[in-house]
Amino acid sequence: MSTKYDVIVIGSGPAGYVAAIRCAQLGLKTACIEKWKDEKGKGVNGGTCLNVGCIPSKALLDSSYKYHEAKDHFDIHGISTKELKIDVKTMIGRKNDIVKQLTSGIAGLFMANKVTSLYGTGKLLAGKKVQFVDFDGKEEVLEADNVILAAGSVPVNIPVAAVDNDVIVDSTGALEFDEVPKRLGVIGAGVIGLELGSVWNRLGSEVVCLEAMDKFLAVMDQQIAKETKKILTKQGLDIRLSCRVTGSEIKTKGKKKEVEVTFTDKEGNAQTETFDKLIVCVGRRPYTKNLLADDSGVKLDERGSIYVNDLCATSAPGVFAIGDLVRGPMLAHKGSEEGVMVAERIAGEKTVMNYDIIPNVIYTHPEVASVGKNEEQLKAEGIEYNVGTFPFLAIGRALAANEKDGMVKILAHAKTDRILGAHIVGPSAADLVQQVAIAMEFGSSAEDLGMMVFGHPTLSEAVHEAALAVHGHAIHMPNRKKR
Description:
By secondary structure, the protein is an alpha/beta fold. The chain has helices at residues 14-25, 47-52, 54-72, 88-113, 191-202, 222-235, 332-346, 375-380, 396-400, 429-441, 446-451, 461-469, and strands at residues 4-10, 30-34, 116-124, 129-134, 139-149, 153-155, 168-169, 183-187, 206-210, 238-240, 244-253, 256-264, 270-275, 277-280, 284-286, 319-321, 360-362, 367-372, 385-391, 407-413, 419-426. Pfam families: Pyr_redox_2 (PF07992), Pyr_redox_dim (PF02852).
């Protein structure tokens, strides 16, 4: 006789483990299946985000920035350093320790909330049954009243630069270098490419980012994107747009290997660059391999994502899909909130999710963050709006911290003054944009933000001043218009 649960979750990344915990909190008998193994072959929760994504990349970003700051910026504070060096293996070890701490933390949360943790693979069968195969190959068919699919995503591979996990790597391999490459190529100048490129650029690599698109960060507000490109270029990243990679060849030079990359530039001319390492960061795709039986009843859309409605219900009754498997941005926090929504709806609540207010962040230094509509979207939709911008150069706290690059931009409806979007490149942009996201969730106007009292001296004052600038009322810089 098969084991019966109220809910089975397949996948324990940020979407899956949050869904499982919330289901259990609501009194539902819940199991969560995870196929990820650690280096010892033991099952571990957290999915891509905790194991080889969000968390480890941020650990390396912070370590590399501390080295960069000590090497290049301590002198401005009157601090001198001698014989500064970076031990890459120690840095990677710290990253691994953080990953272990957080993944073991999920195991503890599962125990505390009485979530049954199952390590192995899960496949959705017809009638809300799940084929579970553990690491030893033992197979069992589980039954559930509800199934939540949260299998996540994997990097997109391209034939012209096939990953060999040695010289040519994907985003996972880029977290495991045991030394700083002298020359590093990055295919793709999106979020992941810029973050990983920044890590190794700070540590001394000569980094070249080859981006096929003719616009830098095309999905972001273009004023902020242009400012970001200017800042990152000044830091040493060589960002080349309209460059399409056409091939790659690994060659042996003495005792070392290198990769020769061929590509066409924006004029259509053939070019060649040679790198010690090459990172392929051209996007991610939903991971549905062996996840669905042919008669499961779950349908995919034209992009290979699982088709769901606004409440994350699939075409199969009682089956839901969340996170990177479904439409929308592949963001950990988006998946987590979908997990909460689905859990609560299974429990009979009427929870819905506001997809219009989801922050998006690039963790370079300075950070780049946005929420809501950008200026290009508002123009395309014919919405009249007002703009307020304010540079960190005019913020005392930013100057004191030697963090003066960047700006805050706020967009508000021309008639109602309701905040439609916020876009920031600068220090702590991720946290600052969240302030505006909270305001937007409560329907705040730019005037509302402008009338609030912000602490001084803080970086948040840039948000305050940008809100004031929407109507030409900024205090600490000349206004373009006054009313």
